[in-house]
Amino acid sequence: MSITRRELIGGLSAAGAAASLPEFLKDPFPAVQPSGQVEPFTFVHLTDMHVTRKRKGDEGYRKCIETLRQLKPRPAFILMGGDMAFDGNYTAKSEFEECVRLYKGITDASGIPYYNCMGNHDALGWSSRRKVPVDDPDIGKKMIMDLLGWKKSYYSFDHGGWHFVVLDSIFPVGGKDNPTYEPRIGPEQLEWLAYDLGKAGGRPTVAVTHIAASCNRGQLLGDPNYKAMDGSMVLWDTRELRIILERHKVKALLQGHSHNIEEMRYHGVWYLTSAAASGAWWAGDWVGSPPGYTVFRCDGDKLSWEHVEFSWEPRLEEADTLERKKLDEFQAFRREQQRLLEKERAGIR
Length: 349
Description:
By secondary structure, this protein is α/β, with parallel strands linked by helices. It has helices at 3-20, 57-69, 93-108, 142-148, 187-200, 217-221, 238-247, 321-345; strands at residues 41-46, 77-80, 114-115, 155-159, 162-166, 170-173, 180-183, 205-208, 252-255, 262-266, 269-273, 292-299, 302-309. The chain has 2 domains: 39-315, Purple Acid Phosphatase, chain A, domain 2 (4-Layer Sandwich), CATH 3.60.21; 317-349. The strands form 3 sheets. A 6-stranded mixed β-sheet has the order 4-5-8-9-11-10, with helices on one face. Strands 3-2-1-12-13 form a 5-stranded mixed β-sheet. The radius of gyration is 21 Å and the shape is globular. The two termini are 34 Å apart.
């Protein structure tokens, strides 16, 4: 899927139309072209790694990173999409610390610069199922940020004439007695974002969030009872975020969290959810998208992309009864779809 072809056609049409428009109807703030002879570059969106020794997830992540190192051209950087370690919400503190260190060590060994994004499972103990006391000094985002040397949970940077924004969609609520989170950007960060994009001055921009602004699970599953503004799968302040992105002509918002590839364009902004690097938490691909990531190419002010899979055989453990059931059901579904495909292509009724 590529913006380039669509934008080229749309741009040619727009250019012809703009020439005939009166001045007051023309866009006063057109997108800024990268200055000078900037070479095209690629980067990777890598999300939902859930790095752990369980199910040999650390070996799976090493394989994922090795495939990244083999990409041609070599990516300029990796834009992480959150849920990097498994699992701050539900595991003991020492186990979570080990998972964070595994994530850092394996990623550092890639030799490719990377930028971290906060996921809901990257916060320690922000859940009723927490394994740490509520007065633990490392509770919340502090532990992972300290271990990764991560100074601020939302920030921006520039590369090759492009602007990149990393957002934090894990909004703290509940106070000291019941710390948890809501899926939202929040007013303070939204204000920062608006002025950060203003400072970028119209340069082509890509933003990333863990929890998606757009996730069409209910529609895709055909479930009339599934709420569009689901309490856990989409941002509760999507509209506020969307309007800022549209006002500043952001090219794309990269998303994670659902473990399913989705692509949607609305009011000029692409909303792209990448596959989870871990598939279904290193237990196969029964969620729907095989383990993988997305490779993006920036060329001038054009953005194109390709979803990439890597092979990984799940290493299920004795306790993984639910995972075995889910994987068996999904494999049976795929076999049935193949049977129907062959029957329909043969014209057999």
